Amino acid sequence: MILSMIACTQASHAKQDVFQYNDERFADLQMLRYQVHGFDALTLRQKKLVYFLSEAALSGRDILWDQNGRYNLRIRQLLEAVYTDFKGDRTTSDFRAFETYLKRVWFSNGIHHHYGSEKFQPGFSEDFLRAALKTIDPAKLPIQSTLDALCAELFPIIFDPAVMPKRTNQADGQDLIQTSAANYYGPDITQAEAEDFYLRMKEADPDPTHPIMFGMNSRLIKENGQLREQVWRSGGLYGPAIDRIIYWLQQAKTVAENAKQAGVIQKLIDYYRSGDLRTFDEYTILWVQETEGDVDFTNGFTESYGDPLGMKASWEGLANFKDQAATARTEKLSANAQWFEDHSPVDPRFKKENCRGITAKVIVAAMLGGDLYPSTAIGINLPNSNWVRAEHGSKSVTIGNLTDAYNKAAHGNGFQEEFVIDQATRDLINEYGDACDDLHTDLHECLGHGSGKLLPGVDADSLKAYGSAIEEARADLFGLYYVADPKLTELGLTPNADAYKSQYYTYLMNGLMTQLVRIEPGNNIEEAHMRNRALVAHWVLDHANGAVQLIQRESKTYVQINDYAALRGLFGQLLAEIQRIKSEGDFEAARNLIETYAVKVDPTLHAEVLDRYRALNLAPYKGFINPEYIVQRDSKGDITDIQVRYGEAYDHQMLRYSRDYHFLPYVND
Ligand code: ZN
To answer: I need a surface site. Which of 106, 309, 323, 480 has the fewest CB within 10 A?
Structure first.
C-alpha cells in the first residue's frame, strides 16, 4: 500500500536554504528535487550498500515501461532519437509540442498519464514526426524492417485517440483487460478467461489460509488455445533486467549491515531466480523482521494498481536509510509518553496507566526507481499480503526527505499570499511552519494514536464507519494541544513559546478552507483525515466566542485568530470529549459530531476557494529528479568514497537512464 500526501505524514526538517527544490515545469507537472540528508554521515560500508541498492532500484526501469504498454520501449527509443538527433528547426511549435510530449512520456513511464491513465494526445502532427524521423540515422531507431513499417505500426498507437485510450480501464461493465493498454495480459485474452484461470488456481491452493499472491509476477498469455503464465524471473520474461538487479543485490549482500539483512537480500535473489511466490512470501517475512539495520530497500513487483484486475504488480525500487534526526525527535517524545498522558485534559478514567510511545520510523530516500519514479509515494506500508501482515506484521515508514521537499518547494508558490490573512502571520508560518508541522505529526503518530484506553467491555468497533475519522481527530487534537505546551520547549523541540501559533493558523485554515481544493464541486467530504480536520476546525469555530472567526476582505474569506491561548483550551476541551466518545464507544455522539461538522461543504465558500486556488495555476502533479552518486576508487579499483551530487537536468537524467539501464529488447513476448 502507498501513502499519499493526503494521509497522516511526518517529515524531517533540515535547514538548507540554497538547495533548489523546484526544477522545471511542463504540462500539468512540476519537477522537484530532494536532498539525501545524512548520506555523508553514513559509514563507507553503508554508503556502498545504499549505492548498490540504488543501482538495483534503477536496473528495473525497462520492466515498468513494458508493463505499462507493449509499445512503450519502442516509442521511447523513437522519441529519444528525435530529441537528440533531429536536424531541423527546434523552435517550431511542432518541435516544442514534441518536447512536452516526450517529457510527459518520460514522467509516466509510457504513453498514458501516470495518474489518470488516459493516453496523451500529441500536440504535433504525424507529418512532423515522419519528416523528423527521416533526418535520423536509422541505426538509432527501433526499426525491425523499414522506417515506413515502423511508422505504420507505431503512429496509430501514438496519434489515434481510439487506439489504446486507457492504460488501466476501471469502467464497470466493460471487458477490463480488452479495454486496458497495460501489458499484463496477452492481447487476445478476455477478462472472463483471466478470472477463470486465477479462480481455478486459487481453488487448487494446498494452503488456502496462507495464499500466495496469485498472478503477481507474471504476464498471462494464450498459446495454442491454452492459458499460460510467463513468469518474470531470471531466464524468464524480463530476465535480462532481472539479472542486472540480481547482480547489484549480490554486491549489496557483501556489505550488508548484519547477517539478517544479508539473509533478506539472498532470499530476494532466490525469488528473482525462481519466480516462486512462496519464496516471495518468505522474503517479505524476513524483510519485515529485519529492523536492526539503518539501510533498507524495496525492490520488486509490488503494487497492483496498474492491473485492471488488481493482481499483477508493477516493478518498483527504493533505496533508503533511517532518518537519524527525525528518529532522535520521536525518541524524545516516546521517552516522555507517560508525562504527556498524565497531563492531558482527558478524564483520568480514560487514561492509560502504562503508556509507551512509539518511535516513528522516518526514512531518507536515496534513490527512486520503477513505479516510484518520478512520481512517488511519501510513505510505505508493506508487505501487501494479508496473512503475512496478520501473522508477521508490516513495516510502516514515512519518507521524511520527500515530504520535506514538497513543503520547501511550496514556499513562494503564492499559496500563502493568497490564503493567509496578513504578513505577520505569513512570517510566523515561514519561520516555524515546517518544524511545527513535523512536530504535530510526530505527536499525532508517536503519542496521539497510542494514548487513552477503552473502558472495560467497550467494543473497539463501536463507532463503526465514524471510527477512523474520530480516531484521527483524537490523534490530531492530542498533537494540537501539546504542540503549544512549554514542555516541548523544555525538551528542545520547539524554539520558543510562539512557534505553535504557525501550526494553529495553518491547521484551521486548512480545515475550514483550503483542504476543499481536493473536493469536487457538489461533493461531500469522505476521506477520514479530511473529515477529522473539518471536524476539529468547524467545532472550534462554532465554540470560539470570537477567539477565531472567518472574515471577509474585498470579497475574499480569511481565517482570523484573535486569541491563540483560548484556542488551545478549545482543542483540549474537544480532545476530552472525543476521548470520552472513544472510551465509552458512544456511537450517537460520534455520528452527531461528524455529521454536524465534518461532512457537508458550504458551496459558496467552496466555489470561492476553488477559484482562488485555480488562479494560482499550480501544477497538480509533482515528481522528483534523482540525485547521482559519484563513486571514487583507488588504483586497485576499490571504492574509497561515495558522494551525492545534485543538479542533473531532467532530460539528461532520462536519456542517461535510457542509455545505462536499458536491458530489455524492444519487443518482449
Ligand atoms: Zn493518524
So the answer is: 309
Residue 638 makes CB contacts below 8 A (sequence gap 6+) with: none
d(CA 263, CA 292): 13
Q: How far is CA 535 from the centre of its chain?
A: 26
Rg (C-alpha) for the chain, rounded Å, is 26
Find the 159 Cα to ligand 1 centroid distance in Å.
45
| C-alpha of residue 529 to centroid of ligand 1, in Å | 8
CB 46 within 8 A of CB 252: no
Residue pair 233/275 in contact (Cβ under 8 Å)? The answer is: yes
What's at 456, amino acid-wise? P
Under 8 Å between Cβ of 78 and 142: yes
Question: pLDDT at position 533, please?
Answer: 97
Torsion of CA 508, 341, 329, 435, to 10 degrees: 10
| DSSP single-letter state for residue 586 | -
Confidence of residue 640 (pLDDT cuts 50, 70, 90): very high
CA-CA distance, 27 to 102, in Å (whole number)?
Answer: 11
What are 497-545's pLDDT values in tens digits? Answer: 999 999 999 999 999 999 999 898 999 998 899 999 999 999 999 999 9
Percent of the chain at pLDDT exceeding 70? 97
Dist. CA 36 → ligand 1 center (Å): 26
- Residue 12's identity, in one-letter code, is S
What pLDDT shows up at residue 11? 36
Q: Tell me how far the alpha carbon of residue 301 lies from the centroid of ligand 1, in angstroms.
A: 27
Domain regions of the chain by residue span: 71-182, 324-370+388-621
CA of 427 to the centre of ligand 1 (A): 28
Secondary structure of residue 330 in the 3-state scheme: helix
Sheet of 314-322, strands arranged across: 2-3, 379-382, 395-399, 362-370, 314-322, 295-303
Burial pattern 357-392, b for ≥16 Cβ within 10 A else e, equals bebbbbbbbbbbbbbbbbbbbbbbbbbbbeebbeeb
Ligand 1 center to 519 CA (angstroms):
20
Tallying the residues shown for the chain, one arrives at: 669
Task: Show the DSSP H helices in 444-527 as ranges.
Answer: 467-483, 486-490, 500-512
Q: CA angle, corner 581, sides to 354 and 454, nearest 5?
A: 30
539 Cα to the center of ligand 1, angstroms = 19
pLDDT digits (tens, 9 = 90+) for 349-363: 999 998 888 777 899
Long-range contacts of 337-340 (CB under 8 A, 24+ apart): 337/446, 337/447, 337/450, 339/487, 340/447, 340/451, 340/478, 340/482, 340/487
pLDDT of residue 1: 52
pLDDT band at 93 (very low <50, low <70, confident <90, very high): very high
Among 395-399, 483-487, 511-515, whose mean pLDDT is lowest? 395-399
| Residue spans of alpha helices (H) in 123-221 | 126-134, 147-159, 191-203
Give strand pairing partners of 112.
119
Q: How many angstroms separate the alpha carbon of residue 570 from the centre of ligand 1?
A: 20
Closest to 319 measured CA to CA, from 297, 290, 299, 339: 297
What's the rounded Cα separation, in Å, for the pair 472 and 530? 9
Residue with grid cell 488456481, as numbered in its chain: 201
Where are any strands of DSSP class E within 555-638?
A: 556-561, 621-625, 628-633
* Span from the CA of 356 to the centroid of ligand 1 (angstroms): 17
